[in-house]
Amino acid sequence: MKNCKHCHEEIAKSAKMCPKCGGRLGMPTFAKLLILFVIIIVCIVACTNSCSKAVNDAFGGYDDQNGITTFHVGEIFNSKYLKVAFDSYNNNFTNYSEYSDIKSSYKIVQFKFTAENISDDNQTFDYTDFNCYADNETMQQFYGTNDSGLDSGGTVSPGKKVTVPIYCEVPKTASKISVEFKPLFAEKNYEFVNN
């Protein structure tokens, strides 16, 4: 037996409603809805955190090398997936097609990178991961070269390397020429500069 919370009469312990006053003895509907709402919110937050960690584990892992995001010739950008060596910079690249239409006050420069896949899965590294800049203004990549033996990149198997050149058409008077590397799902851009 128990006492009704409304009229305080003694009633059966299993009663959902007081037979004497008609009062409901269970939890109020708004309280049930509030509890359900809190449970749903907790589940959403838990799933979001779990998914965020999974995405970061799967695609993240970019090591900004103690805050360094700018690299020069001879330096290496490391992640847990790729090791990207900044091999060389050619300030006046001339091995391009005679049919290329280059503006008179512009020149072609070449950045060359070697990317090594240090993960256990295939990784992607190609020219589409880069943007060109001259004195902090966006420039176009250049594609009309006669370079042979170099790759445009793509899928790199575990333990394999690929050498990828990036060509940019820039003003002859530009002093700071750079390319930015934006790996998929990375939070930062990594800049490779000519000086």
Structure explained in plain terms:
This protein is of the alpha+beta class and about 200 residues long. The protein has two domains: about 1-60; about 70-195, Immunoglobulin-like, CATH 2.60.40.1240. The protein is built from one helix and 13 strands; from the N terminus they run ββαβββββββββββ. The protein has one helix at about 30-60, and strands spanning about 1-5, 10, 70, 75-80, 80-90, 105-115, 125, 130-135, 135-140, 155, 160-170, 175-180, 190-195. Strands 3-13-12-8-9-11-6-5-4 form a nine-stranded mixed sheet, with no helix packed on it. Strands 1-2 form a two-stranded antiparallel ribbon. Strand 1 and strand 2 (about 10) form a beta hairpin.
Topology of helices and strands:
Layout: E1 2-3, E2 10-11, H1 29-59, E3 70-71, E4 76-78, E5 82-90, E6 106-117, E7 123-126, E8 130-134, E9 137-141, E10 153-156, E11 161-171, E12 177-181, E13 190-193
Parallel strand pairs: 3-13
Antiparallel strand pairs: 1-2, 4-5, 5-6, 6-11, 7-10, 8-9, 8-12, 9-11, 12-13
